Give the backbone structure.
Amino acid sequence: MKVPLLDLRAQYQPIRAEVMAAIEAVCDEQGFILGPRVVELEQALARYIGASHAVGVASGSDALLLSLMALGVGPGDEVITVPFTFFATVGSISRLGAKPVFVDIRPETFNMDPSQIEGKVTARTKAILPVHLYGQCAEMEAIREIAKRRGIRVIEDACQAIGASRNGVQAGALGDLGCFSFFPSKNLGGFGDGGLVTTNESRLSDTVAVLRVHGSRVRYVHELVGMNSRLDALQAAILRVKLNHLDQWSEGRRRNAVRYEQLFRETKLLERVTLPRTDGGNRHVFNQFTIRAQKRDELRAYLKDKGVGTEVYYPVPLHLQSCYQELGYRKGAFPASERAAEEALSLPIYAELTDDHLSYVVKTTASFYSRH
Ligand SMILES: *Cc1c(COP(=O)(O)O)cnc(C)c1O
């Protein structure tokens, strides 16, 4: 049996006609950059997420960059974030000449540990940038409370968490600005790159919208130094179709997570493997189903050999990347992040998996541990 980590064709097959009709309509219109299709998607996503404003941009990485730019983050500023995330979270900070300041994660959820933030806040701290890793929201009440008290802003990296919520509020409506990615492997994936910024502040959404077109509101008149980071009409049309199916896909992922838990329990694997934990109040949308595994790399190679696709998100914490040597962090600085990098393993979780697939993944994992 073959169980890939993700099978986008299985998702596409049943919606092929709908998607093709949307693509054809854009081709007939021959309007490709921003325009009414993008506006329609922005409005639908703002409604879905429960934020007042949504601005379509070229990628999740740009959503982060533009959000930081809208807050005026620049050289000399500090932004508090985590070292256990995708590179773009931290890269966006340094690209603006600001300094990423790390706090460690909670081992149980892989998300920012709010108890470590206060000690890192300085007069230069402009923002806190928590990540809703794997599809589960960070502890936003605690993070917001510190931010409010210290007069700093909160940007959510919600790139893996569209549709996730915490105490009934959705990712992207929990901070001052929310950043989303439509990279094909995300829960709402386009046919290429794309991203979105959400906010409840019209001033911030207006600034992001101006920054994404070279800081220009009136053509060839530039009030800010912005960039080209536009969402295109084809992506918007495809994403608008896919948005209608998003909740059903997320439910499928959640169902699979529950089934994995049953299967892992039945095979008595819980001494070798730690399953993902959902924090109270969170609706987890499982962009990834990430376990901690003993002998992770050997297990991964074994699963690959038996036809099961897995991935390590992420094998090298960012404070130990060679491009961040200048920050002066050593091994041991963030033990929970370093340990997660050694133990985390993401298993196939996409909605179209069958019970046979899930059983096979767990059975194969069990057969590895019976030999090791
Ligand atoms: C995917 C992702 C991004 C970047 O999104 P792109 O659209 O690929 O630029 C940023 N942060 C996290 C946590 C992500 O998973």
Remarks:
- The chain has a mean pLDDT of 97.
- The two ends are 22 Å apart (CA to CA).
